Amino acid sequence: MAAITPRQRTGWLTANFVVIALALIPVLWLVSLSFKTPTAVLDPSFIPSQWTWGNYHGILTSSQFLRPLLNSIGIGIIATVIAVVLASMAAYAIARLQFPGKSVLIGMALLIAMFPLIALVTPLFTIERALGLFNTWPGLIIPYVAFGLPLGIYTLSAFFREIPWELEKAAKMDGATPFQAFIRVIAPLAAPGMVTTGILVFLACWNDFLLAISFTSTIAARTAPAAMQYFSGGSVFTVPTGPISAAAVVITIPIIIFVLFFQRRIVAGLTSGAVKG
Amino acid sequence: MSTTTPAVTTKPTPAHAARKAKPQLSEGARAERRLGFLLIAPAVIVMIAVTAYPVVYAVFLSLERYNLALPQDTKFIGFANYGAVLSSPFWWQALWVTLIITVFSVSITLVLGMLLAMVLHRTLFARGTVRTTSLIPYGIVTVAAAYSWQYAWTPSQGYLSAAFNNSAPLTSQVQAIIVIIIAEIWKTTPFMGLLLLAGLSLVPEDLQKAAKVDGATGWQRFTKITLPLMKPAILVALLFRTLDSFRIFDNIYILTGGSNGTGSVSILGYDNLFSALNLGIGSAISILIFICVAIIAVIFIKGFGTAAPGTALGKR
Amino acid sequence: MIEHGGDTSAASRGARGAPVQSHTHRARHARHARGPGRRRRRGSLWRLLAGAAGITLAGSALAACGTSSAATGPVTLNYYLYPDTSGATQTAINNCDAQSHGAYKISYQQLPQASDGQRQQMVRRLAAHDNSMDILGLDVTWEAEFAQAGWIVPWTGTYKAQAEAGTLKPALQTATWKGQLVAVPDNTNTQLLWYRSDLVPTPPTTWAQMIADAEQLAKEGKPHYIEIQGAQYEGATVWFNTMVASAGGSILNASATAPSLGAPAVKALSIMKQLADSTAADPSLSVQMENQNRLQMEAGNAAFQLNYPFVYPGMKADNPKLFKVFKWALYPQVIPGVPAKVTIGGIDLAVSAYSQHQNLAFQAALCLRDAQNQLIGATVGGVPPTIASLYNNPALFPDYPMHADILTSLENASVRPQTPVYQVTSIDISHLISPASGISPTGTEQSMVGRINNALQSKGLVP
Predict the structure, then answer these.
(1) CB within 8 Å: B171 and C233
(2) Which residues, in sequence order, are CB contacts of B87 under 8 Å at separation 6+?
(3) Could you say which of B73, B84, B257 has the minimum Cβ distance to residue C461?
(4) What H or E segment, with its residue span, contains residue C347?
(5) Contact flag B134-A20 (C-beta cutoff 8 Å)
(6) Cα dihedral A147→A151→A152→A155 (10° resolution)
(7) Which chain C residues contact residue B173 at CB under 8 A?
(8) Domain ranges of chain C
(9) Cβ–Cβ gap A97/B36 under 8 Å
């Protein structure tokens, strides 16, 4: 084990610093804006000339924001779990099994991934209204799952292809059904891929704006990005910079927690050595 | 497979199949096919149920003259909408803007994403912190980040505008597009980095060590070992990033609203669908966007050999 | 799912015997070699699924609660309006609920803050014949579109009479389509010239004079910008409409079937271009909206501002020092001696054609915009009223010292083109006049004629 040279140390420290700085500066700008009074907004410095907690107080004491936040988290988690499960099953089948119609499935997944969402909003809206799904959680969960599946299937197929299949064959030779082989041998090896896919799908749901604004009408199902459109300033002409920035910061906190939580699993999965072992 | 006994104990088979090897194989193949269909069924059902009618309806709408505010004037006009779109300078300008944004943001993101992946993979200190922090741009809601950039570039209010002599880049087409590209790069580099990191981590350490022992430099190791082994991951990341970038919407919507010639094809579609309520034209624009995106996908899959999962594995 | 698999294989493992164990043994060891991480992941996955199930149930229950309707008692009327945080709207609602003596209860359904977002939400649901919308708060440019599409119902009989009594004529004009009254004006808005008396003791009366004054100030090195909305959005169309009307013309002809424009439009465009090219123009003119104009003025960078009265309380609160020299005057004239015809703004209340309680909705709307509630809207909500007599009501004076000028401006106001394709027309216009430095008076007028013709025939794309 070679010792870490001072040059390496400074090198990596600098790299770390650059990454962190570039990633955080726009976020810090939002944080700074969220603490500024409407007058201080006019001043371009990062340190607010006038501090206020008013922006946070305003949005956190209002159900108009807290409920959408809860909606975002709940809808995101449910849609992610369902999408990852379905995508895992499909990706395994694509990567490992022989059956006709594989290319049809891939074609369909690609088509959905490529079709512009704006064109689908109006017909989907009509369907949801007819089914009574408008302004409900399932009304957003189901489309999110459908639109998250192509990404999930693709990502997981790529992962599954990299897994050495001798382990599976060995398990099969010992009498396990393909299903058992999947569960006991492949699934643990696919775990990091599934976690990565879960993150991607969750963030896609979290970020979605078009469907959220089109398929909800009250805070019963409205998610956080859509809720930011309902903030208002002192008048019809005022853009509520403070509340929007505060909301943006508050929305980011669950993401930080989420990423922190899952990031450990990525590390564990990627460095486990089982894949190459 | 000569060892049929374990197979018999695990799968229920008709009695006569045990006698010959061939039916045994097709039985296994049949079970495999059944399993295959079973596994993909839920995903396929969900995708079809949600998108079949809307996609078909959107295609149908594109062949109609249909204004939501004038429903009585609806009528079938064949490809006239497509003619109107393709002969409109607005469409070509939007297409041009979209292509520029896509090419620049994807290529720069690829390079930065690779650098980021290497830092995330190899950094000696605070790996967890660096990883979490670098994912934050991807985690922030796009519109929130776009607001951050917009306020930053507002003259006399934003730090970036102040840094550039109180300029207002969002007022001029070229400068605004550059700002949009920067916002896109900032937002999507973590995504690229994440996908590349996963690919990077599958490159075996022993190969790297062996090459080092053989005297290969860092750059040689990178280009001759790492990159080729990462090629599938790179291509998948590029494919998805390009498809997404071509359909860019949120950043432009918040930063400029598409004004001053900075609208992408998606913004054009949105304006015609939701502002002008022209479902016919808007759907035609959407179909054309889809065709462009399909062309890009075909270029990637057929041209660059991006792994379309399953096609390379047909034989086993 | 994964848990089940684990259990099954454990059972089958026990049943199989040695050969199976040796191979799966390796896999098992590989699992354990990773340490307790795997166990934790499976357990946490279970918890995740359980939590997700719980959230779904809770969410569905909450959603169901939200959509359940009262069986008996007052009828719930859904009132769709922009988000008003001042409390004025809620007060008006409470007043009307009380006055209805249990006949109805108004539920304030907030729409997005941006005008476009409000329109899209309503259009989407009205086009789908949504019957849960009753009273709609429409921007003054939407009536033609909504009425033509059959989404709102005309006002007739006593309701019409009550709506028209004492209401400003231009406001009523915005609510009229094809000779029928399709909405009742609630609040309105108009622009004034705001200036700094320390820089300009006597306010200019014409555009030419204002630009000259500003350029003079620029030469003297003093704050000199003329703040106006020049971004590529509805506000630019408002500016253009004001200029054309003030030049004696109009954008569309009387029957709204073809563009009118012509010489007045060319005159209007040349003044706009003159401003854009002069030193008086704010460098950010082409991205500025009402709020940026206000902020620039409050920051002390501007000498003149053409904006709505909301800037008055803003300056009072944000820059008391500058407030002392903050004055107003009527909008500058385009033709000297001819008063400017400022574009009217505001909100009209309409009744949805798919509402199941139209009668009650008419009554509620009339109540929501009656004199008492409009006064509250003006003093608390900051939106000028549409009932003329209120401008002589002393209760209005403290917040609106400029009430006389507002009334003068309103009585002479111009209306934006009244056509179902107004949105497209407006987008076409704003894209041709913003950035204002790109205007070429005759060329732009020609392009405008062509584009508006297309829009009126629903031909072509919007940019």
Answers:
(1) no
(2) none
(3) B84
(4) strand C345-351
(5) yes
(6) 180
(7) none
(8) 75-189+345-411, 192-343+421-456
(9) yes
- Residue with tokens 């997404």, as numbered in its chain: B244
Checking if the pLDDT of C52 tops 60, the result is no
Domains in chain B: how many in total? 1
Look at the domain C75-189+345-411 and name its fold: D-Maltodextrin-Binding Protein; domain 2 (3.40.190)
- State the residue for tokens 């304006």: B271
Give CA–CA dist C198/C186, Å, rounded: 37
Domain boundaries, position B92: 80-304
pLDDT in tens, A4-52: 788 888 888 888 888 888 888 988 898 898 898 877 777 778 888 888 8
pLDDT at B266: 92
Residues C275-294: pLDDT tens digits? 999 999 988 888 888 988 99
In a domain, residue B141? The reply is: yes
Tell me if A9 is assigned to some domain: no
Angle (CA) C346-C349-C354 rounded to 5° is 140
* Separation between Cα atoms, residue B293 and residue B284, nearest integer Å: 14
Domain membership of residue A5 (yes or no) is: no
What's the rounded Cα separation, in Å, for the pair A79 and A81?
A: 6
Chain C residues lying within 8 Å of A212, measured CB to CB: none
pLDDT, one tens digit per residue, over C216-267 is 999 999 999 999 999 888 999 999 999 999 999 999 998 888 999 999 999 9
- Counted domains in chain A: 1
In a domain, A217, yes or no: yes
Residues 6 or more apart from A126 whose CB is under 8 A from it?
A: C128
**Structural domain of residue A160, as residue ranges?**
32-271
**Going by C-beta distance under 8 Å and a sequence separation of 6 or more, which residues neighbour residue C443?**
none
Which pLDDT score is estimated for B16? 45
Pick from B143, B260, B267 the residue to mutate for testing the C interface (most C CBs within 10 Å).
B260
Check which CATH number belongs to the domain holding A97 and give it.
Answer: 1.10.3720.10
CATH number for the domain that contains residue B148? 1.10.3720.10
**pLDDT greater than 50 at residue C11:** no
Identify the closest residue of chain B to C434 by CA–CA distance: B260
Residue B36, domain member (yes or no):
no
CA distance A6 to chain C (A): 32
| φ, ψ (nearest 5 deg) of residue C9 | -70, -30
Looking at every residue in chain C, the average pLDDT score rounds to 85
Nearest residue to C353 via CA among C154, C175, C182, C152? C152
Residue contact B70–C420, C-beta within 8 A: yes
Backbone angles phi, psi at C167, to 5 degrees: -90, 145
Q: Do the domain assignments include residue B125?
A: yes
Distance from CA of B75 to the nearest CA of A (A): 18
Residue B171 lies in a domain: yes
Side chain identity at B104, as an amino acid letter? F
pLDDT tens per residue, range C330-383: 999 999 999 999 999 999 999 999 999 999 999 999 999 999 999 999 999 889
Instruction: Tell me the mean pLDDT in the region A122-144.
Output: 91
Which regions in chain B score pLDDT beneath 70? 1-25, 306-316
Q: What is the DSSP string of B65-127?
A: EEETTEEEEEEE-TTHHHHHHHT-HHHHHHHHHHHHHHHHHHHHHHHHHHHHHHHHHH-SS-H
Residue found under tokens 């929305």: A251
In a 3-state reduction of DSSP, which class is residue A99? coil
- The CATH superfamily assigned to C192-343+421-456 is Periplasmic binding protein-like II (3.40.190.10)
- What is the predicted pLDDT for the residue at C19? 36
Q: Which helix or strand (DSSP H or E) is residue C184 part of?
A: strand C184-189
Partner-chain contact A129 C59, CB within 8 Å: no
Query: What's the helix, strand, coil split of chain C in %, to 5?
Result: 50, 15, 35
The 8-class DSSP code of residue C205 comes to S
